[in-house]
């Protein structure tokens, strides 16, 4: 089924199988991107579940460990959560006109061009999750579990802040970061793609 927002922006080429407005927690346009972020986090938690402390901290051929990779993703999302309210307040002083769905699409394309992410495995799209509190951590090793719990807590806080953004502000305010000035939808997607880039570089392509 083709996903079309109220302004006619089809998103199926970015997010197949996504369904909108399931939780009511995050406005529709942001929910689409947020659910993909949660799906990615759940995917990582599932992949890390069998790791013991040795495998988790052992450096791979890239010179980085799974622990280091996860910590980088946690750090990125923690910063995103911290700076989001500040960016929203600042953008309120400088941006007065709403952007169009085509602006979001351009933002997404620029992000994809920056990270050139590979396709996710098929089972990634089978993961169904709507809110951060539903993230399931299956790791049994205390060290792995603790780090996963830390990321989950960051995502819960970030979701709470995103839930406070109205539909009007979702189309009007911007998020400023080192990678540029993004739409809020683009900022969420940038977070997912950055983490995906790290995961693919240090976990998938490194044995």
- What CATH first level would be assigned? Mainly Alpha
CATH arch. level architecture: Up-down Bundle
Shape: globular
Helix tally? 7
Strand content: under 5%
CATH topology: Four Helix Bundle (Hemerythrin (Met), subunit A)
Low-confidence stretches: 1-9, 15-21
Percent of residues in helices comes to 55-70%
Order of adjacent strands in the largest pleated sheet: 1-2
The overall number of domains is 1
Number of strands: 2
End-to-end separation: 38 Å
What value does the average pLDDT take?
A: 87
Largest sheet: 2 strands, antiparallel
Q: Secondary-structure element order, as H and E?
A: HHHHHHEEH
Category by helix and strand content: mainly alpha
- The Cα radius of gyration reads 17 Å
Please supply descriptive tags for the structure shown above:
mainly alpha; Four Helix Bundle (Hemerythrin (Met), subunit A); 4% strand; disordered N terminus; 207 residues
Can you tell me about this structure?
- The protein has a two-stranded antiparallel sheet.
- It has one domain (38-204): Four Helix Bundle (Hemerythrin (Met), subunit A), CATH 1.20.120.
- The protein has helices at residues 28-48, 53-57, 66-94, 101-115, 142-163, 167-170, 184-204; strands at 174-177, 180-183.
- The chain is mainly α and 207 residues long.
- The radius of gyration is 17 Å and the shape is globular.
- β1 (174-177) and β2 form a beta hairpin.
What is this entry, summarized?
By secondary structure, the chain is mainly α. Helices cover 57% and strands 4% of the residues. The N and C termini lie far apart (38 Å).
